Amino acid sequence: MSSLFKSDPVREFEEFGRRMMPWFGRFGQEAVPDAGKSMTVFDWMPSVDVVEEDDAYVLSVELPDVKKKDIKLTVENRILSISGERKKEWEEDEGVRYHRVERCYGSFYRSFSLPDDADPAELTATMKGGILKVRIEKHSETSTKAIPIQSEHEEEEEE
Questions:
Q1: Higher local confidence (pLDDT), 116 or 95
Q2: Which CATH architecture has domain 9-139?
């Protein structure tokens, strides 16, 4: 079984740091709009499920409250990139006080190395109920093919 992720220890460490930043950055603080703290790009990273089927890889990306027009999906050098932005829903109006805001807003970016048997030309994406589904078909010829050896002279065939 091939993996959708190529091992890269440096990248994995950076990914770990990005995932942990919101926890350590907000330790003991309430996330409220009037706290005077601005969100960083590390504050929100959508969750992704990666599933391998017989004929394709399917990524399911949780993007609630993100509009299709705010999502960018690209493939370059066998790297699938998903980026976009979830815009703030609440307004600071007179007479309205927010006591707690836990949902994160702002830009996000995720990237995935495609395995050798994935065909980047055969990629489709659909959005339904806040879930972006990206389907990457596998190459049709993934099996090993025996290659006969031809000889240049008849005398060598007998050996």
A1: 116
A2: Sandwich (2.60)
Structure tokens at 116: 């050798």
Q: Which long-range contacts (CB under 8 A, 24 or more apart) does 98-106 make?
A: 98/32, 98/33, 98/34, 99/32, 100/30, 100/31, 100/32, 101/31, 101/32, 101/33, 102/31, 103/65, 104/22, 104/39, 104/43, 104/44, 105/39, 105/44, 106/39, 106/40, 106/41, 106/43, 106/44
Mark 57-92 as b/e (b = at least 16 C-beta within 10 Å): bebebebeebeeeebeeebeeeebebebebeeeeee
| Per-residue pLDDT reduced to its tens digit, 45-100 | 899 999 999 999 999 999 998 999 999 999 999 999 999 998 877 667 777 887 88
- pLDDT for 40: 43
